[in-house]
Amino acid sequence: MLPSPPREDEPVTSAPAADGDGFDQFLREHQAPLIAFLARRAGDEDAKDIAQEAMVRLMRYRSQPADQLRPLMYRIALNVLNDRGRRDSTRQASAHVSLDQDFLGLASSEPSHDQRIGHEQELALVRAAILQMPERCRQVYLLNRIEGMSYSQIASHCGISVKAVEKHIGKALGLLRLKLKQSGISREDQS
């Protein structure tokens, strides 16, 4: 009577020995070195699976002498390793994402819809506040913040002193803060 092949969830080393041929002992003795050999080539996680598959395939040759089983086992293990490499290559396994992995890497860098709407509302509020500023104050603020002009450049452009530019910028910022505060939006809320 032939021994039944091991189930997938059953380790190879627990397979029944056929008439005490020492095959099980051989597997027990060589399992750890085989896994270490494969771990250097495939990583720890895959090494155990590859070793298990190699030992299952080796069961076909259990009647061979022990001195022939060892090189055969390593050859089978390398073949399994190569087969997996080819399979992973054709399936582009490196491009796959496990469902168990954290999806933070897949999150969009774009703001959410709610964030975009909130920013658009804030921007509309700031535009309205700028339009409500006194004309000279608005002109000085926009030359500085939008055009990127320095205070001295603004002073010579508008024909006013640098001190007057500083006062207009301060007034503009104060008015903006007040409008944002009245609408319930403040710098503390944005952090």
TrEMBL record:
Ranges where the RNA polymerase sigma-70 region domain occurs: 27-88
Biased composition (Basic and acidic residues): 1-10
Statement: the UniProt record of this protein carries the keyword Cell membrane: no
Annotated region (Disordered), positions in chain: 1-22
Alphabetized UniProt keyword annotations: Sigma factor, Transcription, Transcription regulation
InterPro entries: RNA_pol_sigma-70-like, RNA_pol_sigma-70_dom, RNA_pol_sigma70_r2, RNA_pol_sigma70_r4_t2, RNA_pol_sigma_r2, RNA_pol_sigma_r3/r4-like, WH-like_DNA-bd_sf
Domain RNA polymerase sigma factor 70 region 4 type: 125-173
One Pfam family, short name: Sigma70_r4_2
NCBIfam families on file: sigma70-ECF (TIGR02937)
Family affiliation: Belongs to the sigma-70 factor family. ECF subfamily.
Protein name: Sigma-70 family RNA polymerase sigma factor
The species this protein was found in: Lysobacter arenosi
